[in-house]
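Bump. Still looking for HIT domain-containing protein structure tokens.
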Amino acid sequence: MILKQNNFSHLTAKEREFLSFPAKRVKEMGLLSGDILDFGCGFGKDVELLSQQGLSVEGYDKHYQPKYPEKQYDTIICFYVLNVLLPEEQSKVLMEISALLKANGKAYFAVRRDLVYEGYRTHKVHKKATYQTNVILPFKSIFRNDFCEIYEYQHFNQLKKENSDCPFCNPSSKTELILESAQAYSLFDKYPVNKGHALIIPKRHVSGFFELSFKEQSSCLFMLNEVKKEIQKRFNPDGFNIGINVGEKAGQTVFHVHIHLIPRYSGDVDDPRGGVRGVIPEKRDY
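Sorry for the wait, here they are.
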């Protein structure tokens, strides 16, 4: 059964009278601190019980508790959410959580490890088609058994990595990350052409865009769409230029592929006609 939309993922939420297994596990490990967000909290039982134990916890769920968070958090938990989402929905959740997490915060993702098959199935109770899939994340695994795996996520620029001269493999911990997914991240250009000039960067060290895998290219372009929304909200530009320099003769100076998203504003140049054709100035007008 093939569906274009995953309309019934919320039906997988379960009523409980006790803490979920991953919530109990991360609490026992002492990983819940500061302001905590339960992203995809379902009916909110973990939020209720953790709050009763003295923790500062808020819940968000697109269907059951739809008021979107308005601040950033020290700790974010996301339990058994990704397993019932399509790949593009999973990426959106990762990016949303990256934006809601404080610069030095940590997020914990619990995914199921007991799924027998992937795809749509008819829910036993609700008789609706619900989706499920196995999920493997490129983050640090801190717990695993036959039923569950828990990953710890930190912003890409907060992780200690091997020595490298590449500024995009080791971005400064003081740099503001705009969004991050499993495959890519985005930040503001250090030398912006215009206010809000952003870069979308794959995490794997690859020189040129055409050397990326299809999955990596897709991830970068998906993030490009989401970063555009964020830039539009923050700076309200009148247009955009999108550019990728591939090779020294095309102007590439940092040989780790990156996509430029450059906001444009009314009056920022006398005559904007021709846009990216201006890379060869005498060919801009036609």
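The radius of gyration is 21 Å.

Edit: fixed formatting.
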